[in-house]
Amino acid sequence: MYKKFLSITKTLRFRILFPLMLIILSVSFLEIYYLNHYAFNVVEDIVLDTKAKNASQVLNGIERYFSNIETIAKKPLNTIEISSLLRKDYTNLSITEKSKDKYSIQMFLFREIMLPNPDIESSLIYDTSEKDYYAISDTYALYKDSYYSFNAHDTDFSKLQATDGVPFISGIKKSNMLVQPHDDYIVTYGTGFNNHFKTENSLYGAFYINIKASAFAELCSRNYVENTGDCYLLDQNDHIVFCEQKDLIGTDICDSFPLKNQLKNTTASAISDKQYVYTLTNVSDTTGWRVATISNTSNVFSYRQTIFYTILLSMMLLILIITFTIWMVISNFTKPITTMKQKLLQVSNGDLQVTFENSPGEIGEVNGMIQHMLDEINHLIKQIYHEENVKRELQLHSLQNQITPHFIYNTLSRLKWMAAIQQADSLAEALGSFSDILSYCMKSTDYFVELQEEITFLTNYIKIMNLRMLNEVQVHFEIPEALKKTKILRFLIQPIIENVFLHAFQGVEHECLLAITAKSEKSCITFYIEDNGIGMSSEQIAHLFQTETPSESHTHSSIALNNVQQRIQYHYGSAYGITVQSTLGKNTIVVIQIPY
Q1: What is the value of pTM for the model shown?
Q2: Cβ neighbours of residue 84 closer than 8 Å, sequence gap 6 or more
Q3: Of 124, 157, 169, 192, which residue has the fewest beta carbons closer than 10 angstroms?
C-alpha cells in the first residue's frame, strides 16, 4: 500500500493536483474567514443602521406630535373672546360675572382642547391679574386644592417669565390630579400669553397642556418595528417616558442599564457590550428628547451562525465543483502525456518506427516535433549508411590508386637524377615538381592539411600543368598570413584548377591569368578561383555538379565538381560548398566556402 501511494505521488497528475488543492483549500479558508468577517460587519452595520432609522422614525413621530400640540396651544391666544377675558379687570365687577367668565373659559377648554384630543389629561389657563387658574380635565372642572395641585405650575410660570413666554416641554413627571381617573405620569407643554402693550409684567397669562404618558406609548408603538429590541423614549433629563416595562417609566435609564456614560452621549451612536446593543438617536431640537433601543446581543446578532454555515456550505460546494473540474482538466491534460511517455519508452528500447498522434494544442505540437525528430533520425540513419558506403568506395579507389604513384615516384626520382647529371635543368625542375606532387599525395592519408601545404602542392601542380600550355598561365596567390596555418580538406582547390587548365584556356590566344584568393569573412573562409578564360553558360555550370562514380571521373574529359561538393558537405555540413559565377567569353569565378 505504501509503495503504491509513493508511485501515485510521483505521477504528473498528483504533482499538479496536490499543490493546486493546497492552494485552493488555503484560499478557500481565507475566503471563508474574510467573507464571514466581512458579512458579519456588513450585516451588523445594516442591522444597526436599520435600528437607528427605526428609532429616528419614532423620534420624528414624537416631533410631529408636539408640532400639533404647538398648534393647539395657540388656540386660546388666537381666540379674541378668550384673549379679552384674560385681559379683563374684575376689580369693580361682581363675583357672578367673574364666575360666568371663568365658566366660559372652562367650556372653551373643554370644547376646543379636551374633546378633540383624548390623550390630553388636562389643560389650564393661568390669569396673572387674578392669579387664578381656569382648568379642566377630561372628567372634571378643576379647582385649586380640591381636584388638582396647581402649585407645580408656579415653577413652570417662572420658566415662561424667564424666557418671555417661549414655549417649553417638560420632562416626564407625576400627575397633578388629586382624584381618579388619571394617568400616573404626564408631560406638560406650556406657553405664555405675551402682552406687547405693557412694559412691565408682559405675560398676562399662560397656557398648560398636560399630556398623558400613555399617549406616547401609542406613538412609539405605531412608529417602531417589532422584534428589533426594546424602545425607550427619553426626555431631556434621560428619564424614561415610554418603554414596555411600565415600572421603569419615570426612572433614569442609567439606573437600569450599565452603560451610563455612553447613554449620556447626546449624539447618535450604536454601542454594545457583551449583553446589550444600544442605539441612540440625536437629541431632538424641538423637545430635547431622544430615542434609545436596547436589545440582547444574542437576538441582534443571531444571524451570525446562519451566515457562517451558509458561507461554509457554499465554499464546500464550490471546492467540490472546482476539484472535480480541475481533476477533469488534469486528466485530459495528462492522458496524452501518459501516452507520450509510453511511446517514448518504446523509442528508448530501440523502436524508431513509433508513430506519435498529432492531437490539438501544445501536446500535439510536442508530438509533432518528436515525430519530426524521429523522421529526421531515421532519415539521417539512412543518409549516414549511404555516406559510409560512398566513403568506403572512395577509400578503396584511393588504395587502388596508391600502388601506381609509388612506382612512378621511384622512377621519376631516378629520371630527375639522370636529367640533373645531363644538365637538362627544365626537365629536372619539371620532374622535381611532379615528384613533390606524388610525395604530397602519398605521404599522408589525413583528410585535413594546413593551407600552406595545399598552396605548395598547387604551385607544383600548376608548374606541371603549364607544360601543356602554349602560353604559360600567370598565377597569382593572395593568401593572408593568418590563414596559412588553418587546416582545410586535402585536394580542396586542385580539382577546380585542373578544370581551368583543361577547359578555361582551350583556344585562348590572349594572356592567361589565374588568381587564387582566400578571405576570412565572419566565421567562414572563402576561396575565390578566378580565370580570364572562355567562360561557361548556365547549362555548362549545371553540368559541373552532375553526379558520377569514382571510376567514371577518371575517364571523363574533366573532373566534375560534384565530388568536391560532396566532400565539403560530408565534412562541414550542407551550409557550405561551391558556387560558380561565369560570363561566357569573359571569365569564371569559383567560390568555395568552408567554416573557419
Answers
A1: 0.50
A2: none
A3: 157
